[in-house]
Design goal:
Chain A: InterPro entries: 3-oxoacid_CoA-transf_A (IPR012792), CoA_trans_fam_I (IPR004165), NagB/RpiA_transferase-like (IPR037171). The complex is a heterodimer of chains A (242) and B (218). By secondary structure, chain A is α/β, with parallel strands linked by helices. Helix content of chain A is 19%, strand content 26%. Chain A has one domain: Glutaconate Coenzyme A-transferase (3-Layer(aba) Sandwich), CATH 3.40.1080.10. The longest helix of chain A has 13 residues, at 103-115.
């Protein structure tokens, strides 16, 4: 009897059921908080024609970028793709369908998808190319556009810790889109750094309740850094200074 | 003389007030953090989910799980909080951020801004910029006044795809501090040593010049 135990022991099992032309929602911001090994497993499986919903699309040789290079992505919904040369090339050549979506709208689309809200009005994008083809409506004298929610056949999520029931805790800014992605997948697969026994996580400190999670796997992570920026060690921390 | 990137940031920093929550965009806006007066408390919001951004880390402090919206490694200031992307944009869209500073390719006399795409040439995406300009009331755009070929970026009508419509009221360029109202640009200040005629010449949209225009003070 597995009960609420969501833990699986292989990546093959973690991504079982993913087939061609499915929609995958991915957590992560840049390369921070991405499900590195679940992406690698999708590459290994060779699943084609995927629609990927993610704030960014990795870099050429890491993160979701490897699925682009491998021609597994048919369409991507993202807010910023500037770090990826192959992305720009495929998009300009018309080989890849791209739906550029404002970052807050993207987050809200996932949140709404997970919460059973089919669409919402937002001022973001009014009067811009994003508004084309969308219903516009005025509330209290201000214009808004109607944005539809997103759900995925799969969601791939990276968390810091999970218990066996799939309750999740994220770490620092690796949280980003991950809780939203987790809520919006029909099958939500979570990769974590540590799996603890049920009862070890403080219920008050759980970011994503296990009800949203279907599978949990423990991975090891490279955690590549895109922009390594530092200050000299002898320099005092000045308030607000970057 | 035209302002350097640092001087633009320095002038923007003078607009900060004690207790402000501020979102700084990528590029020149990021530099504003270096010029926050020590007499005031300001908290920096990074739209990837951090309120209370600190300085860059030392080599020993680097943490791959802690970055800003420009994907740079950062630290957390004392009193910082972390949240997911929907919460982050609830702050932005809900009008809770006191000041937003961001860059642009073009602005026009109607407060329109183009900053995310040059068709056929540069397609990187809008990131959080569309949410920021739609959600904030107090926005300062930082940009160069004209291209290096002398083509104005302060226009009658933006030519590039818009990031936001009718949402920009203040622009700080390397030559001038300008307010946008009533469908016109209004010259508030000029960079030290830059004459009004030069600013007028490099401003395509109608520029209202009222009285003596003061030089920026640093």
């Amino acid at each position: 009897m597995a009960g609420f135990d969501k833990v699986v022991s292989s990546y093959e099992e973690a991504m079982a059921g993913l087939t061609d032309n499915m929609t995958v929602i991915a957590g992560g911001f840049g390369l921070c908080g991405i499900a590195e090994n679940l992406i690698a497993e999708i590459k290994r499986k060779g699943t084609k024609g995927l629609t990927v919903v993610s704030n960014n699309c990795g870099v050429d040789d890491f993160g979701l970028g490897v699925l682009l290079t491998n021609r597994q992505i048919k369409k991507i919904v993202a807010s910023y793709v500037g770090e990826n040369a192959e992305f720009e090339r495929q998009m300009m050549a018309g080989e890849l369908e791209v739906e550029l979506t404002p970052q807050g709208t993207l987050a809200e689309k996932m949140r709404a998808g997970g919460a059973g809200i089919p669409a919402f009005y937002t001022a973001t994008g009014v009067g811009t190319p994003v508004a084309i083809g969308k219903e516009e409506r005025s509330f209290n004298g201000r214009d808004y556009i109607l944005e539809e929610a997103i759900t995925g056949d799969f969601a791939i999520v990276k968390a810091w810790k999970a218990d066996r029931y799939g309750n999740l805790v994220f770490r620092k800014t690796a949280r980003n889109f991950n809780p939203l992605a987790a809520s919006a997948g029909k099958i939500t697969v979570v990769e974590v750094e540590e799996i603890v026994e049920v009862g070890e996580l403080d219920p008050d400190q759980i970011h994503t309740p296990g009800i949203y999670v279907n599978r949990v796997i423990k991975g090891t992570f490279e955690k590549r850094i895109e922009q390594r920026t530092t200050r000299p060690a002898d320099k005092q921390q000045v308030k607000g200074e970057l | 003389m035209a302002l350097s990137r640092e001087q633009i940031a320095q002038r923007v920093a003078q607009e900060l007030k004690d207790g402000y929550y501020v979102n700084l965009g990528i590029g020149i806006p990021t530099l504003v953090a270096n010029y926050i007066p020590s007499t005031i408390d300001v908290m920096l919001q990074s739209e990837n989910g951090l309120l209370g951004m600190g300085p860059f880390p030392t080599e020993d402090e680097i943490d791959a799980d802690l970055i800003n919206a420009g994907k740079q490694t950062v630290t957390m200031a004392t009193g910082a909080s972390i949240f997911d992307s929907a919460e982050s944009f609830a702050m932005i869209r809900g009008g809770h951020v006191d000041l937003t500073v961001l860059g642009a390719f073009e602005v026009d006399v109607n407060g329109n801004i183009a900053s995310y795409m040059i068709p056929g040439k540069l397609i990187k995406g809008m990131g959080g910029a569309m949410d920021l300009v739609a959600g904030a009331d107090n926005i300062i755009v930082t940009m160069t006044h004209a291209s290096k070929h002398g083509v104005s970026k302060l226009l009658n009508n933006c030519t590039l795809p818009l990031t936001g419509k009718g949402c920009i009221k203040k622009v700080l360029t390397d030559l001038a501090f300008i307010e946008i109202k009533d469908g016109k640009f209004h010259l508030l200040e000029r960079a030290p040593g830059v004459c009004v005629e030069e600013i007028v010449k490099l401003t395509e949209g109608e520029l209202v010049v009222t009285g003596e225009i003061p030089e920026m003070q640093f």
